Amino acid sequence: MELHITFPTRKDLAEQLYRQLYDAIDSGLLAAGTQLPPTRLLATQLGVSRKTVADAYSRLTYDNLLSGRVGSGTFVNARPITQPEVQPASPLASAAVLALWRDMPMPLSHAAAQGRARYEFIGGASLKTHFPFDQWRRCTLYALRQFNRSRALHGDPQGLPELREAVARHIGFARGVRASVDSVLITNGAQQALDLIARVLIEPGCKVAMEDPGYPFARQLFAAQRADVVDVPVDEEGLCVELIPEGTRLIYVTPSHQFPLGMPMSLARRQALLARAAELGAIIIEDDYDSEFRYEGPPTDSLQSLDPYGLVAYIGTFSKTLLPELRLGYAVLPAAILQAVKVAKQLTDWHTPTLSQWALAKFISEGELLKHVRRCFEVYSARRERILQRLAGDLAPWLAAVPATAGYHLTALSQSDADLGVLIKVARQAEVGLYPITPFYSRQTPVPGLLLGFGAIDLLDIDPALDRVRDIFQQLAPR
Asked: Which of 41, 422, 432, 450 could pair with 427 as two cysteines, CB 3.0-4.6 Å apart?
């Protein structure tokens, strides 16, 4: 780079050069990492002696503003960020609500903080090795062509009609959902669908019922909307419907693959839930987050397909079947709340990015999504079967699997007095990532157990990982 510096006088040139370089660095004009010209070159450009430049560089180096690297040159150092002095003021009027958001726990964020282990049993994650990048790239190029032909305007808040039609066909075939292009809303992941429905239904103090244990991000979202979240226990048939209290306005369930335990809701319990919602005038959110992967028994249709009252809002995501980074989800909304949720979507972010919508619409319509699901099913099925064999075999003294027919995680409940907290800590030292189910409980007494995700671990890695878990169990609670 070149520095264009002029001097009004010839007096103390080194001091003047030092001061101007200092000010340039201090103001950010010379950013951290910028390479300064060699002393000989800068001296020639400014018409001063090389010693003048060398003296200025030396002072700046002494001030820790510059550093020399042998064979590379002289570079500007990173400077500590100084915060401007804040004048004392009265406490913020919004201090209470800020504290609510600031102190909200994030139980599903622990993996990023700890880092991935060599053998990962984290739930809700998959390996990118199975993602069909070539097919997605072709669909993205198609999306770019469509994008280039369109006018530079905002899209429909409800979503691209081509994608809504493709989603309606797909979930109708895969999950028995009764959906039309007019009832589907495209969202930035299932979490936004949850947020939008909560925005239009929840007022401070109103009752929202959800499973306990259950999905913590749903619970925290409802609590952040100032709802009175009622934690309803679950049993082997799912949500205990008779414990849903009077006055409940919204009910959140995961009937196909209860999160985190994994058992499906029985047909009798589903029918009872629909009847109870009709009595209360409550909307049911059916979160069908990963049930496209089904391994046992006849296909079970969605709760929404049984709904004669128009009270079930069915939400799904492509984060599990494709990639979480795509941030693509959807909601099939009953007529009673459709328009309100569309308005909330437009006020929130106007619409989901159109480019990714075009790509996904092409991906689904050409059958690539179904092909991908079938490929992943074979992979996940083999991993699941191997974990179940180990749980029924040499790990049986310590862990027992909860019966589950779908998804790509299993829950194993503790069968001994082994301290699972110690197990998880020692296992991570042995490069095995294990995760407890206790953070998913709210008011019910936690049952000790592990959530064993098999989306992010290769089949050949399962036995070495579970061998290490077995050996740790042997030390903590010998047979």
From this structure: 432
For residue 297, give the CATH number of its domain: 3.40.640.10
Cα separations (Å) of 122 from 205, 209, 369, 426, 431? 35, 27, 24, 16, 13
pLDDT one-digit tens code per residue, 210-225: 999 999 999 999 999 9
Q: What is the model's pTM?
A: 0.81
Q: Are 395 and 423 in contact (CB under 8 A)?
A: no
| Amino acid, res. 147 | F
3-state secondary structure of 75: strand
CA-to-CA distance for 94 and 100, rounded, in angstroms? 10
325 and 267 housed in the same domain: yes
CA 377 remoteness from chain centre: 22
Domain that holds residue 358: 131-366
Clarify whether residues 415 and 468 are in a common domain.
yes
- Looking up tokens 């999950």, which residue turns up? 175
Residue 3: is its pLDDT beyond 60? no
215 and 181: one domain? yes
pLDDT one-digit tens code per residue, 239-249:
999 999 999 99
Residues 6+ apart with CB under 8 A from 124: 108, 290, 319, 320, 409, 453, 455
What would the DSSP string read from start to end of 386-414? HHHHHHHTTTTTTEEEPP--BSSEEEEEE
**Any idea what DSSP says for residue 253?**
E
**Is residue 329 a contact partner of residue 314, using CB atoms and an 8 Å limit?**
no
Contact 249, 208 (CB under 8 A): yes
How many Cβ atoms sit within 10 Å of the Cβ of residue 294?
20
- The reply to whether 351 and 381 lie within a common domain is no
Residue 451: both structure tokens together: 């959530």
Helix (H) or strand (E) segment spanning residue 113: helix 110-114
Distance separating alpha carbons of residues 436 and 476, to the nearest angstrom: 17
Do residue 160 and residue 281 come from a single domain?
A: yes
Between CA 197 and CA 186 the distance in angstroms is: 13
CATH code for position 421:
3.90.1150.10
CA distances from 206 to 230, 251, 339 (A): 10, 12, 21
Residues 304-354 pLDDT 10s: 999 999 999 999 999 888 988 889 999 999 999 999 999 999 999 999 999
Burial class (CB in 10 A: 0-12, 13-18, 19+), 105: exposed
C-alpha pair distances (Å), 457 with each of 45, 132, 435: 60, 18, 14
